[in-house]
Amino acid sequence: MESKVFDVEAAGLTLPYKFYTFDSIQDDLKKIFGDQVKQYDMSIYKKWSQIRQDKNDETKYFTYIKFFIDIETNKTYGLIGGKTNYNCPDISLYDEEENERRFGRLFMKNDKYKMSNVILVVHHKTADEDSMQAIFIERYVQRKYNLFDS
């Protein structure tokens, strides 16, 4: 899988962190989840309509991955893995709190990077243990692709 090591700074500490490319993550996820993995351009879709249309009618939750673009190389890398619901999704590409402590947002304060409008979503198919499945997939992608919490 294609990756690159970036310096991530937080709380006065800098650590090397390996991020994987969009294509590597998408290809790998499709091997595991097949057509349940879809990409969405969040600059196009209003109010999550396309994401809602693509869901299984029984499920309420889904897992997503946000990406950033390394401006110097124009390559896109995974940054944040999260879980949300279809009815009131809380995916925001540009939200930031006053005393920000979320590592992905701290990393994005560097002007060498910009958020990508494209996200990946994993739609799971089973309504049984719906929230737990989405959480399990969220933890899986966070650990496998070195993604920060949402």
Brief overview:
With 150 residues, the protein is of the alpha+beta class.
The helix count comes to 4
Helix content: 25-40%
Poorly predicted runs: none
Number of strands: 7
Order of helices and strands: EEHEHEEHEEH
Strand content: 25-35%
Assign the structural class, choosing from mainly alpha, mainly beta, alpha/beta, alpha+beta, or little secondary structure. Answer: alpha+beta
Give the helices and strands, then pairings:
Blueprint: E1 3-10, E2 13-20, H1 22-33, E3 37-41, H2 49-54, E4 61-70, E5 75-85, H3 103-107, E6 113-115, E7 118-122, H4 130-144
Give an overview in words.
The chain has helices spanning 22-33, 49-54, 103-107, 130-144, and strands at residues 3-10, 13-20, 37-41, 61-70, 75-85, 113-115, 118-122. By secondary structure, the chain is of the alpha+beta class. Strands 3, 4, 5, 6 and 7 form a 5-stranded antiparallel β-sheet that branches. Strands 1-2 form a two-stranded antiparallel sheet. The chain starts with a strand and ends in a 6-residue tail after the last helix. The mean pLDDT is 85.
Characteristics:
single chain, alpha+beta, 5-stranded antiparallel β-sheet, globular
